[in-house]
Amino acid sequence: xxxxxxxxxxxxxxxxxxxxxxxxxxxxxxxxxxxxxxxxxxxxxxxxxxxxxxxxxxxxxxxxxxxxxxxxxxxxxxxxxxxxxxxxxxxxxxxxxxxxxxxxxxxxxxxxxxxxxxxxxxxxxxxxxxxxxxxxxxxxxxxxxxxxxxxxxxxxxxxxxxxxxxxxxxxxxxxxxxxxxxxxxxxxxxxxxxxxxxxxxxxxxxxxxxxxxxxxxxxxxxxxxxxxxxxxxxxxxxxxxxxxxxxxxxxxxxxxxxxxxxxxxxxxxxxxxxxxxxxxxxxxxxxxxxxxxxxxxxxxxxxxxxxxxxxxxxxxxxxxx
Length: 321
Known about the structure:
Blueprint: E1 3-7, H1 12-23, E2 27-32, H2 40-51, E3 57-60, H3 66-76, E4 80-83, H4 90-95, H5 97-118, E5 122-128, H6 152-171, E6 174-180, E7 183-184, H7 193-203, E8 206-210, E9 216-217, E10 220-221, H8 222-233, E11 239-244, E12 250-251, H9 252-263, E13 268-272, H10 287-293, H11 301-315
Parallel strand pairs: 1-2, 1-4, 2-3, 4-5, 5-6, 6-11, 7-10, 8-13
Antiparallel strand pairs: 9-12
Helix pairs in contact: 1-2, 1-8, 3-5, 5-6, 7-9, 9-11
């Protein structure tokens, strides 16, 4: 039985991941601080859904608390760390860059140091397509120098990758950094575009569309992301960076149209200027992940949206909608 520590395990991706790990027989430990970036009650419900699959140890604490982190590693001796916890969001990071650096930078470093001290040999770090920023190299490949992030959030994720690279070089830890591309699906954070658009159109409210609708995103359904994470967890040596996306881009206008079709309702859109920190395109080259992780994304946006809308309609009473 493998002991896996998942930080941010009460969140969107984390809660789905721990269900998969429990179901396959791993011993799972979750560290989450249930902060108020969005309603803590949503994350607590995620945890309760995971408990229906099986038991796991839950530690409520902050990754920036060195005592909590060291005691967790000392007590549980995890063999694998999957570090998903982060202060998320591009636009909010412009307003609170020091907070983002504290959580995403210092918090990551504290975890890596505890992993080194207590002998955790495998680490999977959740990075982001935001590290590419305004890169003109299309599609985005992992060999891109990624020195043009457009937000503090993207910069902190790139810094986390560099910390991981350093710990591999110094201590021989096997570390994989996974650059997620616009993940969506059941339990998605309520501030994310697909969730906001579904909520607004379902309610008959106006939805805010930034720019002229031509910006493109590489949307990735969470089940494909889970397969990438599980593949990275199997790697026992080396330092790696992998893109995890669908390798298919969709315009903002096409996204809204697909949501309209999934809901069977028309959107009332209001156009606003492009926002600082937003980028015109994300587009993943997943060749490396296919080769080394067996990664094979299979979810189209249309199929994923059907699942998301079904979940949303089943859950909107709890979500306050």
